[in-house]
Specification:
Elements (H helix, E strand, L loop, with lengths): L3 E4 L4 H14 L4 E5 L7 H4 L2 E4 L5 H10 L4 E4 L5 H6 L1 H22 L2 E7 L10 E3 L10 H20 L2 E7 L1 E3 L12 H11 L2 E4 L7 E5 H13 L11 E2 L3 E3 L1 H11 L4 E4 L3 H8 L4 E2 L2 H7 L7 H15 L4
Parallel strand pairs: 1-2, 1-4, 2-3, 4-5, 5-7, 6-14, 7-11, 8-10, 9-13
Antiparallel strand pairs: 10-12
Helix pairs in contact: 1-8, 3-5, 5-6, 7-9, 9-12
Bound molecules: serine.
Length: about 325
């Protein structure tokens, strides 16, 4: 991975990955793209940025050729809760964008990354210690596009020799950019409200465990997987990865260690709860550890300390 084009670069993952890769590879070797342009955002102002709708295959190919990239990191997609509200749009964007990224990668022989998700599992999947290879019958449109995406990436690898790679991300927690409408977003919102008001009403019910990860570990995972020896990758699309699993009370307890007056209440959203109930409690990441050395650094306490410190500064409460 020497010169990279990134789609969805203004999103939660993209904004942090762009910053990291500009440091690792040099600013001229990172082509950030997104459907919108935000004038005051460092992704746009601090390096190469191009407006790209991932459904525009001609422009995607043209940009990849123009900048002579060797890697495509395809992040643009709708997350679970938004996708459930407009399933046809989600199918069109998630699959249409992916096939364009795969076709561009096939034509130009690029290495390609696609993030899958814990949403690729469903109610019939074993919920505890969910294995790498297991039942995948999700009942959300987001999950359907993620399973189809994993299979399509496998297909492009075996049929056309494209070097496709991917991970199944858990809920990602970060302070720079908000997630774009997922089920795990409560675990980000809670930190903002802890600092703003000292109280949070969770839209996810008590006792609902889901896998989570702090964003620096997610960024490391992408970089390490893309730099890994391809010969060793047996499960390319896509690796289970996780750093921790908790329910809202456990997260609140970690916040209380830093902010003893913080209180948690519940105002459950049935739509997002239904999605959360269909996902695993915790997944087994041992194949990622064995095949490319996945090793997260942050647990719930280290993440909470870091999140609160940075958010206090961001929200002017330090
Ligand atoms: N964080 C994502 C979501 O909740 C999971 O992929 O949609």
């Amino acid at each position: 991975m020497k010169k990279v084009i990134i789609t969805g670069a203004l999103g939660q993952i993209g904004s942090e990955l762009v910053e990291r890769l500009r440091k690792d590879l040099g600013s001229d070797n990172v082509i950030a793209t997104d459907i919108r342009e935000l004038d005051d955002n460092p992704v746009v102002t601090d390096g190469i940025f191009e407006v790209l709708d991932v459904l525009d295959k001609d422009k995607m190919l043209e940009l990849a050729k123009k900048y002579q990239v060797d890697t495509m990191i395809h992040l643009a997609s709708l997350l679970s809760a938004v996708a459930e509200n407009k399933p046809q749009v989600a199918w069109h964007l998630n699959m249409g964008g992916l096939i364009n990224a795969l076709e561009t990668s096939r034509e130009l022989q690029l290495k390609m990354f696609m993030p899958s998700s814990i949403a690729a599992f469903g109610p019939s999947t074993p919920r505890d210690g969910t294995p790498q290879v297991t039942i995948q019958r999700p009942n959300t449109m987001y999950g359907v596009t993620k399973v189809a995406g994993e299979l399509l990436c496998d297909y492009y690898h075996t049929k056309f020799g494209v070097d496709t790679r991917g991970v199944r991300f858990p809920g990602l927690i970060s302070y720079k950019t908000l997630p774009g409408g997922g089920t795990t977003d409560y675990a980000v919102d809670i930190y903002y409200e802890a600092i703003k008001t000292g109280h949070y009403d969770s839209f996810i019910a008590a006792g609902t465990k889901m896998d989570m990860m702090y964003i620096p570990d997610a960024i490391d995972a992408i970089v390490n997987l893309m730099n890994a020896d391809g010969e060793k990758l047996i499960h390319r699309n896509a690796y289970n990865i996780t750093a921790m699993s908790f329910d809202p009370d456990e997260l609140a307890a970690a916040i209380k260690k830093e902010m003893p007056d913080f209180t948690l209440g519940y105002n459950v959203d049935p739509a997002r709860q239904k999605i959360a109930d269909s996902w695993p409690n915790w997944i087994d990441a041992s194949d990622a550890k064995e095949e490319w050395g996945f090793k997260p650094k942050y647990d719930i306490d280290a993440m909470t300390k870091d999140m609160l410190e940075h958010l206090k500064v961001k929200l002017g409460k330090s």
